[in-house]
Amino acid sequence: MKQITSPQNPFIKFLVQLQEKAKIRKQTGTFLMEGKREIELALKGGYQLETVLYLPELVSDKELRAFSGCDCIEISKEVYQKLAYRDTTEGILAVAKTKSHLLTDLHLSDNPLILVAEGIEKPGNLGALLRTADAANSDAVIIANPKSDLYNPNIVRSSVGCLFTNQIATGTTEEVIAFLKANKVAIYSATLQNANHYHLENFTSSTALVVGTEATGLTEPWRTESAQNIIIPMQGEIDSMNVSVAAAVLLFEAKRQRGF
Q1: Are strands 49-54 and 92-97 parallel, antiparallel or unpaired?
Q2: DSSP letter string over 181-244?
Q3: Residue 65 φ then ψ, to 5°
Q4: Which residues 6+ apart lie within 8 Å of 121 measured at CB?
Q5: Which tens digits make up the pLDDT trace of 54-87?
Q6: Per-state percent for the chain, helix, strand, coil, to nearest 5
Q7: 191: buried, middle or exposed (CB in 10 Å: 19+, 13-18, 0-12)?
């Protein structure tokens, strides 16, 4: 079994770069993740692991047998602490190959429910959106005008593995709108302008629920190409809520209408 004990090892230095730089992830087509649940979900989602790094005191031989097809490396606690983000540790990390996220890769049902998020900048918000989409079992998540690399470690971590459980595609706003129209999916844009209360709309047929950032909202094309703009009525002092919370309200109203 291979062992790495020094944080100065060239491969460990490369993994630090892989975590920190989207350019390296793009060049190599790989990313680093940590945690047993995340790795399990990645495998279930069809991701291919290249390397597993583990602390022998926390990961058993039985658990390692699940990774017999890839390179397994025993590492020291010092190396693990160099790479791990979490304070609570499970002692395992993995290098995996990224996937293509083209719109044409999506496989939609006959009556899809799709979450579209435009221009989300904060990785934590994007991770939370992926958790919400998984909870609602939406058909797909489409990121329009993406501002962050999907395999940013903060997205992987904040999605608690839901990066791997959702069908995800990216594209420009114009490309996404064209894709939805070509697939006869009705667009409902969450925006203040010319909007109807969300619960008064019918989401039982093919639906895309579109959310944007709290700061700037959705761009003009979404407002003009929407079948209906929708709004969540605010009853307190503020006029907006976190984007993942808004997405949850909309998605679960659609699920309620569809009988869960």
Answers
A1: antiparallel
A2: HHTTPEEEEE-STTEEEGGGS--SSSEEEEE-BTTTB--HHHHHH-SEEEE----SS-S---HH
A3: -65, -20
A4: 147, 148, 213
A5: 999 999 999 999 998 899 999 999 999 999 987 6
A6: 35, 25, 40
A7: buried
3-state secondary structure 82-102: HHCCCCCCCCEEEEEECCCCC
* Pairing mode of beta strands 186-190, 113-118: unpaired
- What angle do helix axes 123-135 and 243-257 make, rounded to 10 degrees? 10
Q: Which residue has the tokens 């190959």?
A: 97
Radius of gyration of the chain (CA): 20
Alpha-carbon span 115 to 209, nearest angstrom: 5
Beta-sheet pairing, 168-171 with 186-190: unpaired
Decide: 32 and 18 in contact? Cβ < 8 Å: yes
Q: Is the pLDDT of residue 88 over 80?
A: no
CA distance 48 to 206: 32
Q: Judging by beta carbons within 10 Å of its beta carbon (0-12, 13-18, 19+), is residue 221 exposed, middle or buried?
A: middle
Pairing of β 92-97 and β 30-34: antiparallel
| Residue 247 near residue 132, CB atoms below 8 Å | yes
Cα–Cα distance measured from residue 48 to residue 79, given in angstroms and rounded to the nearest whole number: 23
Average pLDDT over residues 112-127: 96
In this predicted structure, what is the pLDDT of residue 86?
76
Q: CA–CA separation, 27 vs 30, rounded Å?
A: 8
Q: Which two tokens stand for residue 165?
A: 């459980």
Contact 18, 30 (CB under 8 A): yes
**What pLDDT was estimated at residue 240?**
82
Q: Tell me which amino acid residue 26 is.
A: K
